[in-house]
Amino acid sequence: MQKTKRALAVAAFVCCVLTALADDKNTLVQPGDTLPTFSIEMSDGSRLTTDNLKGRPVVLAFFNTNCRDCRRELPLLQRLYTEADETCRVVCVSRSQGQDEIAAYWQKTGLTLPYSPQTDRTVYSLFAPHGLPRVYVADADGVIKAVFIEKVSARKLLKAIKQCREQKQTNH
Fold first, then answer.
1. Which domain holds residue 73?
2. 3-class secondary-structure state, position 9
3. What does the H/E/C string look like for 103-127?
4. CA separation for the pair 113, 115 (Å, rounded)
5. What is the largest CA-CA distance in the chain?
6. What is the CATH number of the domain that holds 139?
7. From edge to edge, which strands make up the β-sheet containing 144-149?
8. Cα(62)–Cα(120) distance, rounded to whole angstroms?
9. Does 39 map to a domain?
10. What is d(CA 63, CA 73) in angstroms, rounded to the nearest whole number?
11. Which of 48, 60, 98, 117 has minimal Cβ neighbours within 10 Å of its Cβ?
12. pTM confidence score
């Protein structure tokens, strides 16, 4: 009985390690990489490109309002957006979800942050093959400093933003 329990514990540990390793392979961009080149239209009509995101830290979040974890993350992103000053930008990009569905969800939940409705996975696929939500924190030079997949910790996200802000102040 004891050997069976130990074998099960070892098997569970191995599964956890393999899952963690697989997650690394499911992220096409990692901390230290630069943001991939993209251009998106935001819900407020503005156009964002990788180049015009540079100059201040950015929180780039991929979401779909049908995703339970995304629905938990969006209020945190809203709070960041509301409290953000000119030293940080918050950008939300949908994965395979159009304007009407997102706008209805935004209205229902009282969200006001701008988003980019993407009906396909073109922009998302530059970052990862699957998995939501995904949040990337990049510094003022467009270098990714932190990646959050599925579970977004407010404490860790705020720490990554703070480090990017401090780095910008040190470099300028």
1. 29-171
2. helix
3. HHHHHHHCCCCCEECECCCCCHHHC
4. 7
5. 64
6. 3.40.30.10
7. 115-116, 89-94, 58-63, 134-138, 144-149
8. 12
9. yes
10. 9
11. 98
12. 0.83
